[in-house]
Every structure is written in C-alpha cells, then in structure tokens.
C-alpha cells in the first residue's frame, strides 16, 4: 500500500473512530454530571527569562480527536448529541508560518471555526459552568479554567487502552516509519559510525526531526547499552563497535511506535545472549491475548530471562531461585513493557476500572508500568532485556548469591553493555497477537 492509499484508509476509518470517542465521552460526562467536554490543544511555553519557545507538545487528549499535533491555542468542544466543534487558531503572524487552513479528512466530520487569537477562541467556547475542561491550569481563558475532573479523565484514559481501527492503522504507520530508521541505523553501525551519525541516519530515514520523535532516541554503542535510558549521542568514535542497542520510535498522526533492537558484531557469546533474549521475547509476545494478566507476562519474563542466564552459564542457579532471590532483577531491572498509543508510556496502566481504583504491581517489581488484564485491541510493548549494569552488579557482589555468578563471563559481557528487544504487540479477539513491529520489518 502506498502513502496515498494509507491516507485514504485513515480517512475511511476516522468516522468510526469519532463515533467511539463520542460514545466514550457521552458515558464519561453522564456518569460525572458534566454537560460537555472542552479540550485545549495547549499553549507555547517559553524558557525562563527568554523569548525562545520550548518544543510544543500538544495535549494528548486533543490529538485523540484530531490528527493535529502542531496546533496551539485551539479547542475541541463536544456536547452530547451534537457534532464535535473545533476552534482552530490560525494566528495572523508574519514572524512564523501559521498553521494551514483546516484541511483533510477530519474536516467533514466536525464543525470548524477559525480564529486568530486565544481571546477570539474564548468567545466561541460554550459556558464554562458544568464543563469538563481538560488542560494545564495556565491555559485558562477568562472563566474557562481547566478543572480536569478526575472522573472524566479517568474514564476516558481507561477506555483509551483499547485502540480503534483508525488508531491501529496509525500505529502500523508509526511502526513502518520507525523500521525505516532502524534499518538505516543498523547499516550505519555496520559502517562503524558514531552514535551521533547513527542517530542522524535514523532521523534521515524516518523523515523526523528530533522534536518529532515520540521520545529521545536511545543510541548506545558498547557499554552505553547498559544505561537503560542512555540520553547522549557521542560524536566521537569508540575504540571498537562491539554492540549496538537502539531504542527508537516514530510518530504517525500523533501515535507512537517504540522499538528496540540490539546488534552484535561477531562475538559468539554476546550473540548467544542476544539470541536467548530474542527467543524469550518472541514467546512473551505470543502471550499478548485478551484475558491475560499483564503482570503474569512480566513474571514469565523474569523466569525466561533467568533461564537464559543459566543456560549461558552467567549464573549457576535454578531459574526460579534467581527470581525469588532478586538475582534476575540485577540483570533485568525494568518492567516488561507498557501501554502504547498517543503517548509512548500511555496512560491508565494501573487502572482497576473505569471509575477508579488501581491494581498494584507484584511485590518486588517497582518499575512495571502496566498491571491490567489485557483486552482486545490493547497495544502493549514487550521489551525484555539483560544488562550488565555496574551499580547493580556491585550490589550483587556483596550478597551470598554472588557465589553462583561467573564473574569472568560477566566481565566479558559487560563490554557489550546489554541487550533489549522490544516490539509493539496488539491483543486480538479470537486470534493470535498482531506484532506491529515484526510485520513492519517483514514488509520493509
Ligand atoms: N523507549 C522507552 C521505553 O521503551 O519504554
Ligand atoms: Mn523503547
Ligand atoms: Mn517501551
């Protein structure tokens, strides 16, 4: 399918998406006693004592309704029984390029009012009284002060975990886009380039700028792969290209992908580690099905990764015991993944139900970001990893379990940093999972 056909698909799916959102909003407003929903797109912010704007991040609740991620000072108005209305701010500004006039598939399904200033937008907003107003406090316009009712936000966030057909299509697009970057990045690694040059190859292939990325790319050579959210991209060359971990996504109409790959460069032991993590990762992806408790996937990851450590001889200990004693957490110190969508770590990962309450993480697993039972069309990441993190290894060295560790092998593998492999996976009703990332790699 080419880009035009994909755009046509989005256009076809948008009316149903809008129907789902209005039905969710109807229920949320009805249950909480509000008459309407007013969602601010957001305002530009400025650095302290400076006239340079900070990068604009649109209100995620706004981009849920509209494929407009760059639009400031605008509003979505929804009153049950009426068409959604978009107050579209197109400033008269010759210092900057204003947004284009409203155009695209969404315009046929909403009422649009074009305004030039935030104050003019305020005149088109319905009464603030009995309105659920979603936004930052500083986006207030007169008496339209964001109140962010917890009941409304909680209900909408809870429902958002299940993606509409439109959202799934957007997320497939985001995966394909990221995969173009991943392939270019791997090639740049094979050519012996710097982290910075690899990152630039990624951006070039995706057509994204740094600011378009759903999160800062993690581009890690060698030991840097042991830093879970390694935030630099060095422009100098390392002594060698032993390993390469890249955790990088892309966006399509405001929806994210979040993909990690780890590449070796000829060391058989490290490659066995990569292959072991990959086998575990694929088995975990297969568990992404409606009715499955995501916490069980996380716990299964610990067991599977402990088996990899045992099989490679890194730790001579029963896998179950490695999990019980926390040894597996030394090498796998993060959660197995999270909800994905409008935000890379999407909201409501702990929500017990539409009306509130939360589901605890399993004891001893403080970084898991999703504890819900999966439902059809949830999209989650599955991202197991094994790392050699000096700080955590120092902790293990001081414990009795240190006796079971092959420290010579740990020292060897430490030079590669670690391994993470991450796919974006959809739970499908009555069928096996859809792996958006693998499908995109297969298609590329
Ligand atoms: N890229 C951040 C994460 O994988 O959660
Ligand atoms: Mn990631
Ligand atoms: Mn992730």
UniProtKB/TrEMBL annotation:
It comes from the Bacteria. Its EC number is 3.4.13.9. Transmembrane segments: none annotated. GO terms for molecular function: aminopeptidase activity; metal ion binding; metalloexopeptidase activity; phosphoric triester hydrolase activity; proline dipeptidase activity. Residues 169-425 form the Peptidase M24 domain. Residues 12-158 form the Xaa-Pro dipeptidase N-terminal domain. Binds 2 manganese ions per subunit. One of its GO terms (biological process) is proteolysis. Mn(2+) 1 binds at residues 258, 338, 383, 422. Mn(2+) 2 binds at residues 247, 258, 422. It catalyses: Xaa-L-Pro dipeptide + H2O = an L-alpha-amino acid + L-proline. One of its GO terms (cellular component) is cytosol. Keywords: Dipeptidase, Hydrolase, Manganese, Metal-binding, Metalloprotease, Protease. Its cofactor is Mn(2+). NCBIfam families: PRK13607.1. Belongs to the peptidase M24B family. Bacterial-type prolidase subfamily. Splits dipeptides with a prolyl residue in the C-terminal position. HAMAP family: X_Pro_dipeptid. This is Xaa-Pro dipeptidase. It comes from Pseudofulvimonas gallinarii. The gene is pepQ.
């Amino acid at each position: 399918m080419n880009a035009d056909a994909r755009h046509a698909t989005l256009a076809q799916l948008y009316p149903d998406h809008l129907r789902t959102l209005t039905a969710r909003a109807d229920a949320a407003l009805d249950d909480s006693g509000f008459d309407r929903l007013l969602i601010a797109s957001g305002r530009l912010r400025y650095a302290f004592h400076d006239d340079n704007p900070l990068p604009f991040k649109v209100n995620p609740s706004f981009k849920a309704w509209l494929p407009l991620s760059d639009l400031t000072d605008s509003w979505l108005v929804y009153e049950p029984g009426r068409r959604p209305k978009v107050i579209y701010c197109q400033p008269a500004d010759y210092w900057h390029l204003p947004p284009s006039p409203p155009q695209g598939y969404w315009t046929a399904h909403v009422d649009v009012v074009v305004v030039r200033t935030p104050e003019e937008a305020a005149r088109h907003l319905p009464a603030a009284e009995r309105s659920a107003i979603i936004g930052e406090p500083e986006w207030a316009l007169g008496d339209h002060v964001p109140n962010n009712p917890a009941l409304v936000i909680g209900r909408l966030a809870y429902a958002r975990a299940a993606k509409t057909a439109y959202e799934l299509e957007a997320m497939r697009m985001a995966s394909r886009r990221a995969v173009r970057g991943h392939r270019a990045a791997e090639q740049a690694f094979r050519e012996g380039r710097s982290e910075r040059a690899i990152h630039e190859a990624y951006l070039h292939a995706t057509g994204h700028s740094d600011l378009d990325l759903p999160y800062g790319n993690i581009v890690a050579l060698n030991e840097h792969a042991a830093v879970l959210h390694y935030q630099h991209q060095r422009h100098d060359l390392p002594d060698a290209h032993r390993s390469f971990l890249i955790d990088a996504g892309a966006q399509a109409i405001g929806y994210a992908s979040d993909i990690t790959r780890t590449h070796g460069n000829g060391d058989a032991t490290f490659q066995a580690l990569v292959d072991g993590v990959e086998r575990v990762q694929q088995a975990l992806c297969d568990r992404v099905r409606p009715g499955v408790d995501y916490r069980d996937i996380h716990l299964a990851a610990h067991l599977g990764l402990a088996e990899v450590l045992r099989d490679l001889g890194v730790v001579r200990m029963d896998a179950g015991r490695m999990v019980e004693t926390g040894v597996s957490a030394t090498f796998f110190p993060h959660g197995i993944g999270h909800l994905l969508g409008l935000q890379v770590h999407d909201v409501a990962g702990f929500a017990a139900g539409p009306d509130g309450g939360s589901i605890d993480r399993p004891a001893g697993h403080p970084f898991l970001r999703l504890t819900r039972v999966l439902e059809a069309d949830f999209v989650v990441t599955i991202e197991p990893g094994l790392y050699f993190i000096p700080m955590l290894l120092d902790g293990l060295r001081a414990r009795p379990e240190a006796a079971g560790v092959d420290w010579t092998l740990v020292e060897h593998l430490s030079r590669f940093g670690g391994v993470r492999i991450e796919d974006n996976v959809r739970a499908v009703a009555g069928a096996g999972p859809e792996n958006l990332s693998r499908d995109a790699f297969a298609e590329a």
